[in-house]
Amino acid sequence: MKYIRYLFLACLGVALIAVALANRNMVSLKLMPDGLSRIVGMNQTIDLPLFVVIFGGVVAGLLIGFVWEWLREHKHRAEVNRKAREVGKLEKEVKRLKGEKHKGKDEVLALLD
């Protein structure tokens, strides 16, 4: 199983390197569209290789997806935490009640119950 993972990672690395080598041309990224930049007075552009833009978009999409999923699952995590606290409280109560039941009895007989 470990070798399959390494083989997959190697294939993924080769594919990413091939995409990077095929998309080395420089592109200009603008902060705002032309019409809006004239109104605001900000005409910010940056020149980057196309593969950096592609990989940056993939990474940004993954991060947005992870954060979205983490926020979506908040109610489930809160419910699990509430149930865990309730289980801990009930375990303490059972332990206390068992201690009261066997109070004043022989220890060996208490173990048999």
Automatic annotation (TrEMBL):
Q: Which Pfam families does the entry mention?
A: LapA_dom
Keywords assigned: Cell membrane, Coiled coil, Isomerase, Membrane, Transmembrane, Transmembrane helix
Q: Which GO terms describe its molecular function?
A: isomerase activity
GO CC annotation: what is one?
plasma membrane
- Show the stretches that span the lipid bilayer: 46-68
Annotated coiled-coil positions are 80-107
Q: Where is the signal peptide?
A: none
Looking at the record, the residues that make up the Lipopolysaccharide assembly protein A domain are 44-94
Read off the InterPro entries from this record: LapA_dom
Q: What is this protein called?
A: Phosphoribosylanthranilate isomerase
Q: Which organism is it from?
A: Pseudooceanicola atlanticus
